[in-house]
């Protein structure tokens, strides 16, 4: 499959109609998932040592790693996962909740998305949206 559509989301917010769920984390979820993962995008996973880093150093190292792997190798990994899953929609998953206030609302999945968009001109939308508060009805 050559025309892949990439998205990002949290493990906890993924819905099967979004596409094939793909792990991008160095560790597997320790909680039960109500769906099976379609694959592991190992080239996108940070290292264990990066997990305790502040955003600046983390971003620097992570982007260096993406550059070292390159678009072609990452595309090959995506194509293998998509072929196995039988879909052209991959949802790249991790644990981070981006609906928290700064400075804790950053994540490698969105760093990857920005890098990928810059390299390929292909948008990688985020599917994890803030919870909507019920509308107040005034009488």
List keywords for this structure.
DUF488 domain-containing protein, 13% strand, 139 residues, alpha/beta, four-stranded parallel beta sheet, 4 strands
N-to-C CA distance: 54 Å
The fraction of residues assigned to DSSP E strands is 5-15%
**Biggest sheet: strand arrangement:** 1-4-2-3
Global shape: globular
Total number of helical segments? 2
Q: What gyration radius follows from the Cα positions, in whole Å?
A: 16 Å
The percent of residues in helical segments reads: 25-40%
User: Strand pairing plus helix content: what structural class?
Assistant: alpha/beta
Structure, described:
Helix content is 32%, strand content 13%. With 139 residues, the chain is an alpha/beta fold. It has one domain. A four-stranded parallel β-sheet has the order 1-4-2-3, covered by helices on one side. Helix 1 (55-85) packs across helix 2 (108-120). The longest helix is centred in the middle third of the chain and has 31 residues, at 55-85. The radius of gyration is 16 Å and the shape is globular. The chain starts with a strand and ends in a 19-residue tail after the last helix. The model is unreliable at 131-139 (pLDDT under 50). This is DUF488 domain-containing protein.
């Amino acid at each position: 499959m050559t025309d892949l559509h990439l998205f990002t989301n949290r493990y906890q917010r993924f819905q099967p109609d979004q596409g094939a769920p793909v792990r991008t984390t160095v560790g597997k979820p320790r909680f039960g998932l109500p769906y099976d993962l379609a694959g592991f995008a190992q080239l996108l996973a940070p290292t264990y040592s990066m997990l305790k880093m502040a955003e600046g150093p983390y971003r620097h190292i992570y982007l260096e790693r993406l550059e070292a792997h390159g678009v072609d190798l990452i595309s090959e990994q995506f194509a293998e996962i998509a072929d196995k899953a039988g879909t052209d929609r991959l949802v790249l998953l991790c644990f981070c909740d981006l609906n928290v206030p700064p400075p804790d609302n950053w994540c490698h999945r969105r760093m990857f998305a920005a890098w990928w968009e810059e390299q390929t001109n292909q948008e990688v939308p985020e599917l994890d949206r803030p919870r909507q508060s019920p509308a107040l009805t005034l009488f």
